[in-house]
Amino acid sequence: MSIGIALSPFALAPTANAVDGAVAIGRDIVELGLSSLWFGQGYSHDTIALAAVVGREVPGLEVGTSAVPIQARHPLLIASLAQTAQAAAHGRFSLGLGLGSAWISESYGADFVRPAARLREFLTALTSVLDTGSADFRGEMLTAVTPMSAAVAGATPRLPVLVAAMGPQALRVTGELADGTLPFLAGPRALADHIVTPLTRAAERAGRPRPRIVALVPGVVTSDIPAARRAAEEHTTFYDDIPSYARIIELSGVSRAADLVVLGDEDTIAARIQEYFDAGATDVVFTQTDLTTPEDQRRTWKLLGELSRARGSAA
Question: Residue limits of the Luciferase-like domain (predicted)?
């Protein structure tokens, strides 16, 4: 059970050099005791490439993507990028993929049609390359054929593929073909009953190992709850109008995304993290730790590092 943090693409914008900034953060959080650093995909930089650089520059840190939308990428391209990142990070890279949404698809000129079916074909082709070094897949929605080896030297062990799946169909596909999931804005109740349980069942039916559950949890340690709550509302209202998120938010027992942002002192945050582990999370990754002040963010990272070290010692 590990604890890490995730950075949005916007978190690196104020730095003079986004790659240098990400490396500096990676070194910083390793010193604090955190286990992993995950990068969101935007339009400004490539998150797999960024993870590869940070993984190479910061020994001992797991790096991952949370998550790369599949609509604008071909599985053969993702396979080559991900294997390169795994080699660069010396086996500490995890590939997080997302189904995206209608507006993301439209921004790339792609149709958001039958996302679960597209995910199945995408994962079938991708995992073929990762498992065998080649692919010969001709599906209804995509074709992936490798006329030569697609394996990358040094990309060992076989990198884990996680999917930001929350709906029943996507979870079924993920359980059958991927190594786990990284849900965002799924409270402990929804995580246990509507993600961990169906995903584990699907993996068992497919004869696969128990899936990894990387719970992405927005939150920050702060003494100014009213200001933090206002910031949380401003930064999460967007998700209330996305059907997949609206469903999981409701299943979490709250009415809006902002209600799932964890705010409070160290004891409050630590107790909430434990609730996610109790619900079946194998990893807890805090997001949006920059909601308030740099001092609050530092306080949050310090607490997460202490909790991570404590879990490592207990193990």
Answer: 15-282
